[in-house]
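# nightly structure sweep
# worker-07 picked up a monomer target from the shared queue
# config: single-sequence mode, recycle default, output format = structure tokens
# input follows
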Amino acid sequence: MQLLNNVIAVMNKEEVRNFKLWLNSTNASSARKDILLFDYIRKSAGKYDEEFIYKKLYPGDDKNSFYRLKNRLLEDIGYNLSLLHFSKHESNNLYLLLGLYNIFISRNEPDIALFYLKKAEKRALLIENFEILDIIYANFVKLSYDLTGINPEVYIRHRKENAIKLDKIRETDQALAAVTYRLKLSQNYGKRDVGLLKLLDSTIKEFAADESIWKSKTFQTRIFRAVSQILIQNHNFVELEKFMLATYQRFLSQKWFDKANHETKIQMLIYIINSTFKNHKFRESLDYAEALGEELSAWNGMLYKKFVFFYYNALVINYAKTDLARGLKALDEAEREMKDIKNSYYDFFILLNKATLLFYQRKTNDALKNLVKLYLNDHYTKTDASFKIKIAVAECIMQYESGDGEGVIKRVEQVKKQFKEQLDSDDFKREWFVMKLLPDLAGASKPEVNSKLYNQIAKFVKTDVAGSVEDGEVLRYRAWLAPKVGIESDILDE
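# output follows
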């Protein structure tokens, strides 16, 4: 049962401690088989040997007892986790109140059941959980058979009104889910499902005309998510910035942000940071990055680990444009802060950005050392070839700038063989051009004005290209080549 191993692997220290205290509260014994199995799975990780632990716990017995132990342990962990976390999430608290309602209904105690049902209704209305409200109103109608003090018509009307909101929200969720799914699958943002976008857009306009829903915090949150997805898909960062700033300010002015939707606040800040960065408003982007850093500490840092990467990403992308030294300092700080968060992508991000920032500081050899480390990273092995080739091209550029002419010619040939399929594709014409260019550059100290090599570079640099294309390059090829033909690289960002 791999599920048991996976569940134990993701349990944090608090959950492990609480679970073992709970087990020992019933029968404390160092020989308990469930504790022995739990500890073995937790400590063995990838070296788990089922045959070994089975024979240790049940020598000479058949495996049925062992399988029953595993099933019971999984159930006990699930039960204990639910007890530990039920008060930490609003929805869990609602399920608890409904559970108490069901207990007293089964005992034929409708008055007590009504008490818990009313508490559940009040909580569901507060957090706008329309799905559970539907269940609550249905139970009020049922309870009216036993309690004459309950007017079923009131709750039938509430349920109908709630159903209208719920149907509209479900429609938005379904449209948003479909768009998100298509976005994840699509490798070419030029191929858009226009019909789906129109469906989502018309749904939003319909909602906006409904004043009762428009005033709903839940609805506003869904609007933010849906519209932001449309604008991002269309690379419309100017409108995204305007929309996100207006939405964020509206939530602040209405005092809608609280512990329950703190994650939404953080997500809004991340959108604002990224859109202002895309619009070259680096100072504003950094100001919102600092606001994000403060919000990560709110509510006892409950979302710190989940979003700390986005904070450092915001610092790095902005300082890469404004202050390379501070960008490297942010990467060093990120490395210290995230060392306890086991995620190979974070290491990948740090190494790749250190390489590029060091290169821009003309510390080419140090940049290459970080790329060598990058190739040993677990996340790199899982990275798609379409991104690996861009890293390889960046390495060749760095090697050329280090003055190793012979080395870069050899490396270019290796890259051509390794990524032949990609370089033969029209999607990688820019990488193919750089690979073709580098050996010629390596043989010339500087392209002569009006020479064939000079004109090829000038034409490439002067050819406009979508910002999204250059965003996908580890080192922007035009910015790197521009000075070689007397063009200021700064004007390429305008």
